[in-house]
Amino acid sequence: MTGSRETVLIVVRGPSGAGKSSVAARLRAAYGRGVALVGQDVLRRTVLRERDIAAGANIGLIDLVARYALDHGFHVVVEGILTADHYGPMLARLVAEHEGRSHLYYLAVDFDETVRRHATRPQATEFSPEDMACWYRADDLLPGGLEHVVPQRSTLDGTVRRILADTALTPPGRTPRP
């Protein structure tokens, strides 16, 4: 088993430019210390400099980092595109073996909106809409109905408020602020 009964595991998935990293950062800011962010891009692109492949080393590294943080009493937010075919089995095992509460979210954003949002990001010049089209998978949900689907119309603040409410991820004596 992984983590303790008190730890919360949150997974935020969706297409490139959907707002996953922004949601994860806001969740951490709302809670404060004690939340580990496990970002797919950080581990895959920065740490390993690896392409996203079916048996990539980053899949095991994401799993390892999330489990390590949970085992040491941190709440964990795993975020990334995390395609269902490559990452689904790892995420299913992680959720099944986590002793605490697990909450999974899929940010359902259509391709045109991901391109629009991407143009406003600092890394807008790192990859093109054509690159994004190769990665985009509409409604790439994990099997088994594990995820809450967050619709495109949900604002960043609204999404963060929803996740904080669903997960009760609020330190004792504090009111969450998105």
**How does CATH name the architecture?**
3-Layer(aba) Sandwich
Structural class by sheet pairing and helices = alpha/beta
- Give the N-to-C terminal Cα separation: 31 Å
Q: How many domain modules?
A: 1
Looking at CATH, the homologous superfamily is P-loop containing nucleotide triphosphate hydrolases
Overall outline: globular
Please identify the top-level CATH class: Alpha Beta
CATH topology annotation: Rossmann fold
Question: What is the N-to-C order of secondary-structure elements (H for helix, E for strand)?
Answer: EHEHHEHEHHEH
Query: Looking at the chains present, what oligomeric state does this protein adopt?
Result: single chain
* DSSP helix fraction: 40-55%
Main beta sheet strand tally, sense and closure: 5 strands, parallel
Topology, number of strands:
5
Give the uncertain stretches in residue-range form.
none
* Residue fraction in strands: 15-25%
Please give the structural blueprint.
Elements: E1 8-13, H1 20-31, E2 35-39, H2 40-47, H3 57-71, E3 75-80, H4 84-97, E4 101-108, H5 111-118, H6 129-135, E5 147-151, H7 156-167
Parallel strand pairs: 1-3, 1-4, 2-3, 4-5
Write a concise keyword list for the protein shown above.
178 residues, alpha/beta, Rossmann fold, 43% helix, globular
Describe the protein's architecture and organization.
The structure is a single chain. The protein is of the alpha/beta class and 178 residues long. The protein has one domain: 3-Layer(aba) Sandwich (Rossmann fold), CATH 3.40.50. The chain contains seven helices and five strands. A five-stranded parallel beta sheet has the order 2-3-1-4-5, with helices on both faces. The radius of gyration is 15 Å and the shape is globular. 38% of the residues are buried. The model has no long low-confidence stretch (mean pLDDT 90).
